[in-house]
Each structure stands twice: as structure tokens, then as C-alpha cells.
């Protein structure tokens, strides 16, 4: 099929590449000339395992092209809109400026029978409004809403082999077109839910709200564990054996971050308020508050570990990206902790396998080093805040040789406390005795 993808940020660049990988003829459109230039040369402007390979092969074969001119999307049968919906600084609601601009720019180019597919995460009610706009300005085209559930670090796999497909449609035709787009996944038996616009929009935010709730639930248990001497990791293992609960997303630590979960739960709460149902998701504010408290907890533990003040003490911060296998530092708990410690006068030396460049743009006041050893050298305290595999596998004996004081805060509960203590370390996890 001929496909356009409008908006080539994280979601759009992955979607365009994955659609080309599936054999479709794809054009990616974005207003950012630099981004389009990089993508056209086969270079993703962010780190995502597996993406460079499929981007390079698709651009080389000619199945994937990029342009800044919306007119180049005109002959596509299906147009995916994958622009960002950032958090409005004042209201926490989703800012729909880029979605509206993309639709207005696309509408004059819609051919007879074209299907426009919204992928962006939007407040419930947006698709119905945009469908009305299309019915008015381009009645020969139709709209579907097809939320995306990809995880950073697994984005290519999640797009090519999704665990479910959700189509919010106004008619059966749109669903059959989407089946052709996703024929490989459909043939592989991927569950497919065909529904109305509002349900499709809500599926996305409900899924993210549920995941955020799971994480904050276990982090709330960590808070209780901290005052009772219980071990939250064993608690998570024990409750996770109940299949109704499940062990995944029950890792207590410094909490969730990234470009989706924090912003999506805030936007959902703001939308519910607008709909007069603020109390229905009032718990999301609590989820957000628990999450932010965990960052503060790590800072408090650092102060405690250094005897009451971090001022002028050397702290090695391991990790700045919001999770491993990503260079994304948006709303990163790790970077937040580093910035807070720096604000308290600590000499913070931060490191990360991929995230330093992005972190430096946001927080140039921090000192960054690329080598883990350089970060650890002479540190009076080590704070592990993103569980990259190289930090999980640090050897406590060898690490002790580098630092000036053997004190570590494991903000992701990924180290073996017994092994670190045996090597002479003062080990402190979150919600662990
Ligand atoms: C998330 C959703 O998983 C995805 O389906 C949606 O499309 C976008 O948002 P992503 O932001 O890539 O994906 O990251 P995810 O793997 O969900 O992790 C989110 C955050 O939660 C990370 O900061 C991670 O460190 C944290 N987390 C995750 C925990 O603190 N504990 C856990 O048990 C799991």
C-alpha cells in the first residue's frame, strides 16, 4: 500500500520504517528539515535498537522516502498522523497544536477514498472532532484512530509484532483498509479490537494509566516496607505469582518517567476534569505524587548516606535516560535526581551509555563523562538510577577499588545486596531492608 506518515519524531520515524519493512511504499513527512535530512540518509535522530538497520535498508531500496512538503503525501492511500501531543505547562492537558496543524496541512491533499489514521495520544473526543472536520472539508476521505503501544527500546518489534491492534473507526471500510496495512500481524493471529473513536482513544490512556498505577502501587508498598523493615522485591515476587496480578511492572525503584506515562496520566486527569468526571480518575494524582516522592527519597537517602549534607561531595550518578536502552531523558527520574543533588551543592558526575547528549542540552550545569570508571573514580557516593545492563553487572569488588567511599544507593533494586555488602559496601535499595 502507499502510506504517508506525518510527523517523524519517535513514533513516526519508527512507524514509517516499520511499514516500509512490511513491504509498503512509505513517505515520511515532517516540518523539521534537519530531521528529514538525517532520516533520508538512514540516520535516526535518536537511539532505538534495530531502527538504523530497517531505516537504512528501506531508504536504500526506495520503499521509504522523506519530505518536508505535505504535497508529497498526496498519492498515499493511508495517512498516519503521528505528531506529538506535549503537556501544556499551565494546565497539564495535552497540547493539540501539532495535531490540528497536521490535519489542516493534510486536508487539501487528501485524494478520493483516502484514509487518515490518527496515531498520536489524544484526549478522548479529539477523533470525533477531527472526523467532523474531515467530513466538512474533505468528505471524500475518512478517519480512523489507531493508538500505538510501543515501548522505547522495543519500538521496532512492538510495531511489527504488536500484542494487539485497536481500530477506532466510523465504518467497516476503514477497518478493512487497516487490515491490509497490518496484514502480517493479522495473519500471525494478533488480536484486533474494532471499536468506536472514543473507546480507541481511551484504550491508550487507560493502558498507560494502568501501567503507571502498577508501578506507583509497588512504590507505595516500598514506602511501607521502608518503615517496617520488609523487602518490597520479595513482596513483588510473592504477589506477582498470582496470575491475576502478574510480576511485570512491579519493580519498585525511583519510579516512572519518559515521554508517555507521566504526561499521559496528567492529560487524562485534565480531560476527565473537563468532562466533569475528575473524581473518577482522582487516584491518578496520587499515582503521580507517589512517583515523584520516590525521586525525593533517593535524594534524601543520598543526604543521609553522606552524613547530613551532599554539599561539595562527589556523587557518581549512573544513568540519566529514563530507562535502559534509550537515550530519552524526557521526565527522567535519573536526571531529576542528578539535578536535585547538584542543586544541593553536590559535585555530581553523571554517566549514561546513550543519554548524555540529550541530558546536556537540558541540564548543561551537570558534569557528564562517558566512561563508567571515570564517573566512579574518587566518588564518595554512587547512585544507580537507570538499570543499564553494564550497571547491573558491576563487580562490587572492582568498583570498590575506584571510589573513595564504598557507599551505594541502588535506585532500581537491581544489585544483589548480599554481594555488595560482602565486598564492604554500605548498600541501600528502595523498599529493601
Ligand atoms: C510506555 C508504555 O509501556 C507503552 O506501552 C506506551 O506506548 C508508551 O509508554 P515507555 O515510556 O517506552 O512505554 O516505557 P516503559 O517500559 O513502559 O517504562 C516507563 C517507565 O516506568 C520507565 O521510567 C521505567 O523505568 C519505569 N518502570 C517500569 C518502573 O519503574 N518499574 C517497572 O516495573 C516498570
UniProtKB/TrEMBL annotation:
One GO term in the molecular function aspect is: NAD binding
Q: Name one Pfam family in it.
A: UDPG_MGDP_dh_C
Tell me what reaction this enzyme catalyses.
Answer: UDP-alpha-D-glucose + 2 NAD(+) + H2O = UDP-alpha-D-glucuronate + 2 NADH + 3 H(+)
Alphabetized, the UniProt keywords read:
NAD, Oxidoreductase
Annotated pathway: Nucleotide-sugar biosynthesis; UDP-alpha-D-glucuronate biosynthesis; UDP-alpha-D-glucuronate from UDP-alpha-D-glucose: step 1/1
Which GO biological process categories is it annotated with? polysaccharide biosynthetic process; UDP-glucuronate biosynthetic process
Enzyme class, spelled out:
oxidoreductase
Q: Which intervals hold domain UDP-glucose/GDP-mannose dehydrogenase C-terminal?
A: 316-417
InterPro entries named in the record: 6-PGluconate_DH-like_C_sf, NAD(P)-bd_dom_sf, UDP-Glc/GDP-Man, UDP-Glc/GDP-Man_DH_C, UDP-Glc/GDP-Man_DH_C_sf, UDP-Glc/GDP-Man_DH_dimer, UDP-Glc/GDP-Man_DH_N, UDPglc_DH_bac
State the active site: 260 (nucleophile)
Chain residues that bind substrate: 149-152, 204, 249-253, 257, 323
Q: Where does NAD(+) bind?
A: 30, 35, 85, 121, 152, 263, 330
Task: Give the Enzyme Commission number.
Answer: 1.1.1.22
Q: Return the NCBIfam families for the record.
A: NDP-sugDHase (TIGR03026)
The record's comment on protein family reads: Belongs to the UDP-glucose/GDP-mannose dehydrogenase family.
What this protein is called in its record is UDP-glucose 6-dehydrogenase
Amino acid at each position: 500500500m502507499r502510506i504517508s506518515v506525518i510527523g517523524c519524531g519517535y513514533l513516526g520515524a519508527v512507524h514509517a520504517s516499520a511499514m516500509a519493512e512490511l513491504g509498503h511504499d512509505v513517505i515520511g513527512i515532517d516540518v523539521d528539515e534537519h530531521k528529514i535530512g538525517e532520516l533520508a540518509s538512514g540516520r535516526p535522530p535518536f537511539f532505538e535498537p534495530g531502527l538504523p538497520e530497517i531505516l537504512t535498508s528501506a531508504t536504500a531500496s526506495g520503499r521509504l522516502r522523506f519530505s518536508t512538503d505535505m504535497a508529497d503525501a498526496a498519492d498515499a492511500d493511508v495517512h498516519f498522523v503521528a505528531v506529538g501531543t506535549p503537556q501544556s505547562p499551565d494546565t497539564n492537558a495535552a497540547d493539540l497544536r501539532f495535531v490540528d496543524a497536521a490535519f489542516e496541512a493534510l486536508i487539501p491533499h487528501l485524494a478520493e477514498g483516502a484514509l487518515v489514521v490518527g496515531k498520536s495520544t489524544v484526549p478522548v473526543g479529539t477523533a470525533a472532532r477531527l472526523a467532523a472536520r474531515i467530513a466538512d472539508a474533505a468528505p471524500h476521505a475518512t478517519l480512523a484512530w489507531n493508538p500505538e503501544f510501543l515501548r522505547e527500546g522495543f519500538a521496532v518489534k512492538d510495531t511489527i509484532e504488536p500484542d494487539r491492534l485497536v481500530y477506532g473507526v466510523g465504518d467497516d471500510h476503514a477497518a478493512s483498509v487497516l487490515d491490509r496495512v497490518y496484514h502480517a500481524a493479522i495473519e500471525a493471529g494478533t488480536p484486533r479490537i474494532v471499536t468506536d473513536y472514543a473507546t480507541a482513544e481511551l484504550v491508550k490512556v487507560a493502558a498507560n494509566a494502568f501501567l503507571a498505577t502498577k508501578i506507583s502501587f509497588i512504590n507505595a508498598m516500598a514506602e511501607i516496607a521502608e518503615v517496617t523493615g520488609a523487602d518490597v522485591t520479595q513482596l513483588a515476587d510473592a504477589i506477582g505469582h498470582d496470575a491475576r496480578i502478574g510480576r511485570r511492572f512491579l519493580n519498585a525503584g525511583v519510579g516512572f518517567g519518559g515521554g508517555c506515562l507521566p504526561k499521559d496520566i496528567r492529560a487524562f486527569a485534565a480531560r476527565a476534569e473537563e468532562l466533569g468526571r475528575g473524581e473518577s480518575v482522582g487516584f491518578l494524582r496520587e499515582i503521580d505524587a507517589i512517583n515523584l516522592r520516590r525521586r525525593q527519597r533517593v535524594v534524601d537517602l543520598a543526604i543521609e548516606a553522606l552524613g547530613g549534607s551532599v554539599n561539595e561531595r562527589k556523587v557518581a550518578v549512573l544513568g540519566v535516560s529514563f530507562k535502559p536502552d534509550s537515550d530519552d531523558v524526557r521526565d527522567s527520574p535519573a536526571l531529576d535526581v542528578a539535578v536535585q543533588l547538584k542543586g544541593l551543592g553536590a559535585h555530581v558526575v553523571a554517566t549514561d551509555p546513550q543519554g548524555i547528549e540529550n541530558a546536556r542540552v537540558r541540564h548543561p550545569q551537570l558534569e557528564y563523562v562517558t566512561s563508567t570508571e571515570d564517573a566512579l573514580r574518587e566518588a564518595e557516593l554512587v547512585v544507580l538510577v537507570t538499570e543499564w545492563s553494564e550497571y547491573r553487572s558491576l563487580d562490587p569488588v572492582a568498583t570498590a577499588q575506584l571510589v573513595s567511599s564504598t557507599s551505594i544507593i541502588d535506585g532500581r533494586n537491581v544489585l544483589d545486596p548480599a554481594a555488595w555488602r560482602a565486598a564492604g559496601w554500605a548498600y541501600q535499595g528502595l523498599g529493601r531492608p
